[in-house]
Write a sequence for this structure.
């Protein structure tokens, strides 16, 4: 062929339609225009041939990221978060409506987010809206402005500017969102259960198992029952965020068997850690709902394999070191949230690999299905016409995760010291390299775009 393309990536293992095959991926104008034979005579401005140890996969689509800008940019920000994403093979993120100030509950707040993200983003960025008591009745205008859906809490969120919905308000939000065909995302913990068990477990302390006891499985079970009732009553599409309790799986299975439009995610930390192994005072592991025991973890893996849990997203929720390690390891007082955006792919692959689960499945959960869930048809796969969001990945290479080496603004991570498999060697965003392990500190001009619901 005499045509000169922008980029050709050749590899013996390219993930196409859920299977690895030899191929040359051809890119023009940021889009995949052909998937040819490995040895096809192709000319391009840049030709990259992967090694035998590397595979070519689509970029990860992380649908649950707290960037915190504007307002709490000392916790994270679009510059640091998207650099960390690129280093972890994540090419698209959808930002949660909190913990920024103001939260993304109005069109005006959404525009502030877009203005902050646009000049700084190294990967593509979309936005969720928020459903709080004061925004009910005006959600459609935010939907029309391009958010991908609406997040609500059923228990206190931890920040005053994003209050939770009671059961009556949950049903009101569901009716409103169903009326315009939107998507409702829910942090599912029941506040009445939390109040009872926090009192029983004590006011706080450094004992991790006491903290778990203060946020029991029942809190998730009861909240998810309310969500299923709302879906059944209104027909709203609903998504359960960061499922940690396997005890909620039977009612989720029953709801899905009834054909209700319900999806579920879990997170890398719930698939990687267990309560028994978390040291007292180790507040880098605090998140809500909490990391539970090893038997629970294995049931989450089984639910992923069966398709009962639909997707995996990071729930990257950082804060300053001062907030995370405040109060001498008291789990009730330290900020809750896991910083895992840069390590999410490697962490999930490490757990999958040890259980005989394929990399193809991991990419399905973290890229193909997350893109489909969010409504991003150009993302999540290596296919003709898709955005050339690509990752050169070494699945059998291992490394020790070090918090200090991460691109997150605050160098705190529950994964610090973990031995992980899967190294991201190069990340391309629409055919342009945005990260290379050969030059990890290089200054790359931000080229991320802002995504809107289509």
């Amino acid at each position: 062929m005499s045509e000169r393309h922008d980029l050709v990536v050749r590899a013996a293992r390219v993930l196409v339609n859920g299977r690895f095959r030899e191929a040359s991926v051809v890119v023009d104008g940021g889009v995949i225009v052909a998937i040819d034979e490995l040895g096809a005579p192709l000319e391009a401005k840049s030709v990259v041939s992967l090694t035998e140890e590397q595979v070519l996969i689509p970029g990860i689509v992380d649908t649950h990221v707290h960037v915190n800008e504007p307002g709490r940019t000392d916790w994270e920000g679009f510059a640091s978060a998207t650099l960390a994403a690129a280093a972890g093979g994540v090419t698209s993120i959808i930002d949660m409506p909190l913990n920024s100030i103001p939260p993304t509950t109005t069109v005006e707040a959404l525009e502030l987010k877009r203005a902050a993200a646009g000049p700084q983003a190294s990967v593509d960025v979309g936005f969720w809206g928020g459903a709080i008591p004061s925004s009910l009745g005006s959600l459609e205008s935010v939907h029309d402005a391009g958010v991908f859906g609406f997040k609500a809490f059923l228990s206190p969120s931890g920040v005053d500017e994003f209050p939770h919905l009671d059961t009556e308000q949950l049903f009101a939000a569901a009716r409103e969102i169903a009326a315009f065909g939107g998507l409702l995302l829910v942090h599912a913990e029941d506040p009445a259960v939390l109040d009872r068990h926090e009192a029983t477990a004590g006011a706080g302390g450094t004992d991790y198992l006491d903290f778990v006891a203060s946020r029991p499985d029942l809190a998730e079970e009861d909240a998810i029952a309310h969500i299923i009732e709302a879906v059944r009553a209104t027909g709203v599409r609903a998504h359960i965020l960061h499922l940690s309790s396997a005890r909620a799986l039977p009612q989720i299975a029953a709801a899905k068997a009834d054909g209700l439009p319900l999806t579920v995610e879990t997170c890398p930390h719930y698939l990687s850690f267990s309560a028994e192994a978390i040291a007292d005072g180790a507040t880098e592991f605090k998140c809500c709902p909490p990391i539970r025991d090893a038997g629970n973890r294995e049931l989450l893996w089984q639910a992923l394999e069966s398709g009962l849990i639909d997707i995996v997203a990071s729930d990257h929720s950082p804060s300053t070191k001062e907030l995370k390690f405040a109060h001498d390891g008291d789990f009730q007082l330290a900020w809750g949230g896991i910083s895992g955006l840069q390590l999410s792919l490697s962490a999930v692959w490490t757990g999958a690999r040890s259980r005989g689960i394929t990399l193809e499945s991991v990419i399905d959960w973290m890229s193909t299905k997350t893109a489909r869930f969010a409504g991003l048809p150009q993302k999540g796969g290596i296919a003709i016409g898709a955005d050339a969001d690509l990752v050169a990945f070494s699945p059998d290479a291992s490394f020790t995760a070090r918090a200090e080496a991460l691109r997150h603004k605050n160098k705190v991570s529950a994964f610090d010291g973990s031995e992980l498999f899967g190294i991201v060697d190069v990340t391309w965003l629409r055919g342009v390299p945005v990260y290379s392990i050969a030059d990890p500190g290089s200054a790359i001009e931000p080229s991320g775009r802002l995504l809107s619901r289509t």
Summary: Residues 60 and 90 are 4 Å apart (CA to CA).
